[in-house]
């Protein structure tokens, strides 16, 4: 698609999104808010490995350990008892769609760090999910104001298809770095690649650098 027609399409979508709604606070000139190669969607596509694990809240558990001073396992009540955090961010999938203004509610990663206290040797984090998915990040990517474990999207409980009960959100990286149905978070001294990272996707995954493949 020609650059000009792509831009027109994007602007049409913005216009549709604004119609009848509140005026957005910021005016987006051109593609200022869309990373290279991305297009805007108003829906929220579902991407997974072909299974959507069903985890009853009574059986849900999250374990956080590895190179930390205090490993923990939280059940659902213990997870909800943590300080609550809300953040609005854009979501960029490597398959080229982006979704703006997602309101996430849950527990901030900053809080997780304050609870488990990673050792100074901890430099990487590996996320494992109930569907055998995994993904990896440097600790410094997780230690950011907009990173969280979320269980609510736009005021509603996160649905199973989008990773409920709880998933990770890492807005500054492509969305595959955010593990849905997360069950285990392990702090490591060495990097260990996840599901897509061993299959040719970028280890760093920066949307603004068009950093898709490794
Ligand atoms: N557990 C798990 N997490 C996952 C995936 C997956 O298959 N399993 N897919 C990833 C990919 S490739 C993307 S783009 C996003 C998609 O999230 P969504 O389905 O809520 O849009 O989840 C990521 N997290
Ligand atoms: Mo993806």
Name a few traits of the molecule:
alpha+beta; Sulfite Oxidase, Chain A, domain 2; six-stranded mixed beta sheet; five-stranded mixed beta sheet; globular; binds the ligand Nc1nc2c(c(=O)[nH]1)N[C@H]1C(S)=C(S)[C@@H](COP(=O)(O)O)O[C@H]1N2; binds molybdenum atom
Q: What can you tell me about this protein's structure?
A:
This protein is of the alpha+beta class and 214 residues long. It has one domain: Alpha-Beta Complex (Sulfite Oxidase, Chain A, domain 2). Helices cover 15% and strands 29% of the residues. It contains four helices and eleven strands; from the N terminus they run H-E-E-E-H-E-E-H-E-E-H-E-E-E-E. It has helices spanning 3-18, 76-80, 109-116, 139-142; strands at 39-40, 61-66, 72-75, 85-92, 97-108, 124-129, 134-138, 148-153, 156-157, 167-169, 182-188. The strands form two sheets. Strands 1, 4, 5, 8, 9 and 10 form a six-stranded mixed beta sheet that branches. The model is unreliable at 18-29 (pLDDT under 50). Molybdenum atom binds at residues 47, 93-95, 175-176. The ligand Nc1nc2c(c(=O)[nH]1)N[C@H]1C(S)=C(S)[C@@H](COP(=O)(O)O)O[C@H]1N2 is lined by residues 44-49, 93, 129, 131, 133, 162-163, 175-176, 178-181.
């Amino acid at each position: 698609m020609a650059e000009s027609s792509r831009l027109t399409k994007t602007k049409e979508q913005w216009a549709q999104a604004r119609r009848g709604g509140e005026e957005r606070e910021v005016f987006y000139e051109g593609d200022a808010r869309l990373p290279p190669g991305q297009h805007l969607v108003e829906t929220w596509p579902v991407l997974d490995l072909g299974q959507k694990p069903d985890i009853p809240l009574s059986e849900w558990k999250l374990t956080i350990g590895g190179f930390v001073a205090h490993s923990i396992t939280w059940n659902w009540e213990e997870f909800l008892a943590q300080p609550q955090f809300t953040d609005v961010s854009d979501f960029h999938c490597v398959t080229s769609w982006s979704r703006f203004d997602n309101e996430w509610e849950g527990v901030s990663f900053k809080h997780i760090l304050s609870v488990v206290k990673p050792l100074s040797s901890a430099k990487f984090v590996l996320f494992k999910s109930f569907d055998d998915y995994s993904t990896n990040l440097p600790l410094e990517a997780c230690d950011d104001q907009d990173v969280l474990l979320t269980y609510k999207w736009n005021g509603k409980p996160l649905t199973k298809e989008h990773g409920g009960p709880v998933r990770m959100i890492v807005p500054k990286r492509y969305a595959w770095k955010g593990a849905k149905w997360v069950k285990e978070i392990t702090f490591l001294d060495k990097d260990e690649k996840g599901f897509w990272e061993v299959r040719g996707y970028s280890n760093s995954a920066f949307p603004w650098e068009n950093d898709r493949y490794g």
